[in-house]
């Protein structure tokens, strides 16, 4: 393999690594899970039973917790959109030939 082929392969691997870093960013995973669970808990809190309201002394805890989880999940997703992962900088060497 020539030096040019090795440099090309290194560049391709760095590009793949940067793509993997963006896909598996924790903000995306945490935000998505909080939004998903927030939707589920909010739906459970829309029509509370009398027994669940009695347990929480009249506060619809599922609704408020679900809305809080939704807000936190949306915050993480907006943060991801506003400040994405910076791509890895490739140090290029000048060709002698």
Structural notes for this entry:
The chain has 97 residues and is mainly alpha-helical. Helix 2 runs antiparallel to helix 4. The radius of gyration is 23 Å and the shape is rod-shaped. It starts with a helix and ends in a 15-residue tail after the last helix.
In short:
The chain is an all-alpha fold.
Described by the principal axes of the CA atoms, the overall outline is rod-shaped
Secondary structure: number of strands: 0
**Can you give the mean pLDDT?**
82
Tell me what portion of residues adopts beta-strand conformation.
under 5%
How are the SSEs placed, and which strands pair?
Layout: H1 3-23, H2 26-46, H3 50-55, H4 61-82
Helix pairs in contact: 2-4
Which features characterize this protein?
mainly alpha
């Amino acid at each position: 393999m020539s030096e040019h082929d090795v440099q090309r392969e290194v560049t391709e691997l760095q590009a793949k690594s940067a793509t993997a870093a963006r896909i598996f960013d924790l903000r995306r995973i945490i935000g998505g899970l909080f939004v998903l669970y927030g939707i589920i808990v909010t739906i459970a809190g829309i029509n509370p039973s009398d027994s669940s309201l009695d347990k929480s002394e009249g506060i619809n805890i599922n609704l408020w917790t679900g809305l809080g989880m939704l807000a936190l999940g949306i915050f993480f997703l907006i943060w991801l959109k506003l400040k994405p992962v910076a791509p890895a900088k490739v140090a290029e060497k000048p060709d002698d030939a």
